[in-house]
Amino acid sequence: ERKRAKIKVLSISLAQYQLISTLDAPSKHQDPFDHLIISQAISENMAVITQDGKFPYYIAQGLNIIS
């Protein structure tokens, strides 16, 4: 029997786009796709699995990280 991963594709909401504009991003982190992932994770109360050294900056803003 073949197992399937339980993956949910998230839509991008207006609230998530608006959250991007309120993120306090460091000047060295201007990647818009990262900002979208971060805003989705914060608004959906989900954790991000990453080794990216820039993501921990957003923990104080509500981001949960699994590294």
Topology:
Layout: H1 14-22, H2 32-44, E1 47-49, E2 64-66
Parallel strand pairs: 1-2
Helix pairs in contact: 1-2
Largest sheet composition: 2 strands, parallel
Number of strands: 2
Helix count? 2
Give the distance, in angstroms, between the N- and C-terminal Cα atoms: 31 Å
Helix content percent band: 25-40%
What does this entry look like structurally?
The longest helix has 13 residues, at 32-44. The chain has two helices and two strands; from the N terminus they run ααββ. The protein has a two-stranded parallel sheet with strand order 1-2. With 67 residues, the chain is of the alpha+beta class. The radius of gyration is 13 Å and the shape is globular.
Short précis:
The protein has 67 residues and is of the alpha+beta class. The chain is 33% helix and 9% strand. A two-stranded parallel sheet has the order 1-2.
Properties at a glance:
single chain; 67 residues; alpha+beta; two-stranded parallel sheet
